[in-house]
Design brief:
With 101 residues, this protein is mostly helical. It has helices at 9-42, 48-58, 61-100. It has a single domain, classed as Helix Hairpins (Orthogonal Bundle). Helix content is 84%, strand content 0%. The two termini are 36 Å apart.
């Protein structure tokens, strides 16, 4: 049995759009988390241990933004790949039309 790869442009675009949306949601939720942490740290009612944990959490901010960027970039790649597959299919169809005449 041979391996077959089927690239459906509509699915690529749709799934790419979902990934881009997910990256946006991830950014929004991450911003909320960091806003809540900053608010907690600014208030004096948390313990020194909790402040240390908050400081540790803050060190992951750049990595989380990078993760959102990777997800978004992959979504953009899938979306643009869908357009590329459509163009390639159209070019092939046009070539057959030209050769048929």
């Amino acid at each position: 049995m041979s391996n077959v790869f089927l690239a459906d442009p509509a699915i690529l675009r749709a799934e790419g759009g979902k990934m881009i949306e997910s990256a946006g949601n991830f950014r929004v939720n991450t911003a909320k988390i960091y806003s809540n942490i900053a608010e907690m740290v600014e208030r004096s009612y948390i313990s020194d241990g909790a402040r240390a944990i908050a400081a540790d959490i803050l060190t992951y901010k750049d990595e989380l933004e990078n993760m959102a960027k990777v997800i978004e970039d992959y979504g953009n790649y899938c979306t643009s790949s869908g357009a590329t597959v459509e163009r390639n299919e159209q070019n092939i169809a046009d070539t057959f039309k030209v050769n048929a005449n």
